[in-house]
Amino acid sequence: MNGRQIQAARALLGWSQAKVADAAGVSVPTVKRVEGAAQTRPSADAVAAIRAALETAGITFTDGGVALGGKDGMAPENIEQALAVAHEINAEAAKGSGKIDDTDARIQRENLKLFLWKMKLEIVSDEDGRERLVLAPLPG
């Protein structure tokens, strides 16, 4: 596992360095050191704690890369986060035109995480033409 993989894992999860630090029980400067932003090397225990925290959240470290999708299936917080994003976007749409931009980066990020579990945030139209996001299975 290297610093770029940790950065990619954070991006897949939508986590900040502070969130990783909190989940791993280490400091933010330690996360920065592990990601290679500092001259000093982190301890092996810190690296192991960060790896464990990311794997618990659903990250799988591959040969030189990362994937979102642990062996035990989707972490409940990933579904909760996707639903929270959907709720936020639905509320914004309800206050505005009632339309949802399917290129919204938040939707794309959540769908990237949900893809491995054959799920996605899907836009559906109500009878009155207003759109909302729902968690739906991928076809096939």
Structural notes for this entry:
The chain is α+β, with helices and mostly antiparallel strands and 140 residues long. The chain has two domains: 3-68, 434 Repressor (Amino-terminal Domain) (Orthogonal Bundle), CATH 1.10.260; 76-137, no CATH class. Helix content is 50%, strand content 14%. The protein is built from six helices and four strands; from the N terminus they run H-H-H-H-E-E-H-H-E-E. It has helices at 3-13, 17-24, 28-34, 44-56, 76-95, 105-115, and strands at residues 59-61, 66-68, 119-125, 131-137. A two-stranded antiparallel sheet has the order 1-2. It has a two-stranded antiparallel ribbon with strand order 3-4. A hairpin with a 4-residue loop joins strand 1 (59-61) and strand 2 (66-68). Helix 2 (17-24) crosses helix 3 (28-34) and helix 2 (17-24) packs across helix 4. It is elongated, with a radius of gyration of 17 Å.
Task: Offer a few descriptive terms.
140 residues; alpha+beta; 434 Repressor (Amino-terminal Domain); 2 domains
Question: Which class of secondary structure composition applies to the elements?
Answer: alpha+beta
The level 1 CATH classification of the largest domain is: Mainly Alpha
**Radius of gyration, whole Å:** 17 Å
Let me know the average pLDDT: 80
SS field, number of helical segments: 6
Widest beta sheet: strand line-up: 1-2
CATH architecture of the largest domain: Orthogonal Bundle
Low-confidence stretches: 70-74
* Extended strand count: 4
Report the CATH topology name of the largest domain: 434 Repressor (Amino-terminal Domain)
* Percent in helix: 40-55%
Bin the strand percentage.
5-15%
Our count of domains comes out at 2
Question: Could you tell me how far the N terminus lies from the C terminus, measured between alpha carbons in angstroms?
Answer: 34 Å
Major β-sheet annotation: 2 strands, antiparallel
CATH homologous superfamily designation of the largest domain: lambda repressor-like DNA-binding domains
Order of helices and strands: HHHHEEHHEE
